[in-house]
């Protein structure tokens, strides 16, 4: 109830500001085009945010920020306008922080929600440019360009990504997955193009055209919840589809020196079209026709254990059970209901009875990053893999942890070394859901834990453990953040008592690590 009340407060502020904007239009001493930014600041931003934010501090902060904006638009240019603009800037930074926290609490999953996060973050860029204009800061551009950049990030930076995120909640076709990321890239390219290169500015408009017309096509292929919702979404992209063509002509003029459209025309046509049709339709959507999020917070047991600045062997010093020696990573592999080769089953149930050799291969493109990472991992003494692909033996032990330290069941730590240098400390457990049993592996890191949830299956005599079904997460404080990582272990029996295994990892879909193991019974 309180959350809904806070949402209504922000929504109602936006509705009241419609009347306030009308008063500003009559009384303002500023040029008429200031109303384009005022409409975004006072109406579109609060109403759209009301469908996303339930943070009490931001909602009450809104009163002060919007009053500051009203005073700026009602009074002639004065020195204290910079102070008032700073209040609005702080408000947009608070919204950006809320967007960043929203991302941290979900991570790299659900593109449509990531677009909403970025829209909230990009609003702060508009706040920075608005402050720069009102404070008279020399940005290297004319005052009108500084002002229009603030307008750009309120509309194209804030509204467009968020509305595109709302569209994605109704379904993510392959076309959406290709075109929606362009909405993220284009505002950045525009800013870089204005700053450094008219060619890049021209390219940025082409990226916008690709995104807008692609999303317009998506809006004609999506199954909507109502006719009004359908036509409001289509109006969003139809209006942009028209106005962006004039942006293309303007950018072409900047690039070629052959001007056919002036900046005055752009303000009148492009600005008004976006403010009335694009933002107007988007605000109606945000008021009444927002689809529910498809994201659901993952439900699996999470280790409460966190590492210090250095993990290493000392991490286990006060955490092992009285009778801590255990033989295997798993007590009984039958919980996974798989028809496994005898040696594979025995390895997981009696891991300490086996010797392990590894060849670590970093992908060529990742080796410079791996070298930088090695400087850090050597100090942390966790996930401390060699840079060389030379075959090395991994030694170590498996111990059971005290039961009251971790909410997961039957947790045991597998501590591995290479030439007496700590390499891994992984805390193994398992859990069951309606979808089956999963291996639950936590790796303590400074102030956090990386948790991999692995699905097990058997394929032609091979055991495959994969994170693809659930994922790999970074857990810190109250955040459970999905990482852009995937991993797959493949284990197979070569002869009785001997195994080979392959561990592959990907980041953002790109392979970066492969470890090959030879495993032999002692």
TrEMBL record:
- Asked if the Swiss-Prot or TrEMBL record annotates the protein with the keyword Ribonucleoprotein, the reply is no
**InterPro entries attached here?**
YndJ-like
Keyword list (alphabetical) reads: Membrane, Transmembrane, Transmembrane helix
Where does the sequence pass through the membrane? Answer: 9-27, 33-53, 58-74, 80-100, 112-132, 144-163, 175-196, 202-220, 232-252, 272-290
| One Pfam family this sequence matches | YndJ
Domain of life the protein comes from: Bacteria
Q: What is this protein called?
A: YndJ-like protein
